[in-house]
């Protein structure tokens, strides 16, 4: 069983945007990545920093010295205290997937006759 908590309307959380909300007594970061919504516990498992207050960036890969590429643009959040990086979609730490932060289900619901911009975003937390 889960409780749903209102976050914003779709128009208020544009692609590439994030919002940090209090839901069920927890701080939660909600992200819009290319029109899909993801929610993470705003808590770095390392030492308890507000994870979602960190920079949102890309994943950098390299095939060797002097060569690098950016992938997963806007899908990585970096802890503001010690720069640990987490995948927003899965909650897993980039360099050690066994380390993770909690993720939550997100839903978008429309009410009455409305345009998509008025649809409401909800985070679902365990009861």
UniProtKB/TrEMBL annotation:
Q: Which domain of life is it from?
A: Bacteria
Domain Rieske: start-end pairs: 5-115
Q: Keywords in UniProt for this one? A: 2Fe-2S, Iron, Iron-sulfur, Metal-binding
Molecular function (GO) terms for this protein are: 2 iron, 2 sulfur cluster binding; metal ion binding; monooxygenase activity; oxidoreductase activity, acting on paired donors, with incorporation or reduction of molecular oxygen
Q: Which Pfam families match?
A: Rieske (PF00355)
Q: Which InterPro entries match?
A: Rieske_2Fe-2S (IPR017941), Rieske_2Fe-2S_sf (IPR036922)
Query: Coiled-coil annotation: which residues?
Result: none
Protein name as it appears in the record: Rieske (2Fe-2S) protein
